[in-house]
Amino acid sequence: MVRAPCCDEIGLKKGPWTLEEDQILISYIQKYGHANWRALPKKAGLLRCGKSCRLRWVNYLRPDIKRGNFTLEEEETIIKLHEMLGNRWSAIAAKLPGRTDNELKNVWHTHLKKRLKQYQIKPVTKQNPKSKPKIKCESSDNISTIQSEPGNSSSIPGQTPMWPQPSSSEVSSITDVTTATSDREVNNKAMKAENMEYSWEYFPEIDESFWSDALSSDNSSAPVNFGGVSEEFQSQVPSSSIDHVMEPDYGYSQNLDDAMEFWYNLFIKAGGEQELITEF
DNA sequence: AATGGGGCCAACCGCTCCGTG
DNA sequence: GCACGGAGCGGTTGGCCCCAT
């Protein structure tokens, strides 16, 4: 069976919504809800496809939409969540009440990506000149060089690994596509295998515990930890590996730029860099 | 005043996911 | 287990606006 056309249906309108259309959509949804987007435009008397109506409602007309510029805290939250979740904008939007996935996507592409790029290019200025040279991780060549060192089981030669490396059987069970029972599982396993190939030591999935919860603090007199990593995480990082990137207390800076630079460098150094850097 | 370039954002497109029969 | 269709998601784009020249 051929899928029914959506916006290609003859007579359906495309492009910007008029005030009148908005009002029709709002009043219809207020009365009857939006259980069936496909049927909605016909019932409401709109010459739009259901998809277009849904998009208009979700991204613009919903009463709980927050308007106006993003606050610093919101931007930091977006960056933080993007580190954890990637381009899963709907999941990120779910953590930011009143903001839509579309809006987050836009602000990411127009502001935040550039800002992160700037931090990646910017040289580390707080480096201790007496410390070990900073590991370069800007290219996969450097990573493969480190990985290929015989007997090297740590992310930084001569240092204790931050996380235990999985056994070969564990790796195999995660990545062996021949054991997959569906296409989806094949894809998932292939993606995991690809990610492992890029990481120094199978960098574990980042969860909330990585980050400090100071972002949610409403004590304005206390030092604000913009995007700082949690103490739990910091305790896992050998102090020497922090020192030669930046002093640890920059994770608790009131200066947004310094704090961002701190955790971003730390995250890169810990092996979480590949996806971000190749994205730019 | 004209124009061209860049930023921004609403909306579209195409794909995947998921519920249902 | 499979096919189908609606909903949802992420990537992309068209067009408006602003600013510099």
From TrEMBL:
Subcellular location(s): the record lists: Nucleus
Q: What Gene3D superfamilies does UniProt report for this protein, alphabetically?
A: Homeodomain-like
- An MF annotation (GO) of this entry: transcription cis-regulatory region binding
Q: Which chain positions lie within coiled-coil regions?
A: none
Q: What is its main location?
A: nucleus
Q: HTH myb-type domain spans which residues? A: 9-61, 62-116
Swiss-Prot/TrEMBL keywords: DNA-binding, Nucleus, Repeat, Transcription, Transcription regulation
**Residue numbers spanned by region Disordered:** 143-179
* Polar residues composition bias: residue spans: 143-158, 165-179
Which is a GO BP term held by this UniProt record? response to other organism
InterPro entries reported for this sequence:
Homeodomain-like_sf (IPR009057), Myb_dom (IPR017930), Myb_TF_plants (IPR015495), SANT/Myb (IPR001005)
What would be one Gene Ontology cellular-component term for the protein? Answer: nucleus
CDD domains from the entry? Answer: SANT (cd00167)
Myb-like domain: which residues? 9-61, 62-112
Q: Which Pfam families does its entry note?
A: Myb_DNA-binding (PF00249)
> Assembly and partners?
Can form complexes with MYC2, MYC3 or MYC4.
Which PANTHER family does this chain map to?
Answer: MYB FAMILY TRANSCRIPTION FACTOR, TRANSCRIPTION FACTOR MYB4-LIKE
Task: Report what the protein is called.
Answer: Transcription factor MYB15-like
Which source organism? Answer: Durio zibethinus
What gene is behind this protein? LOC111279213
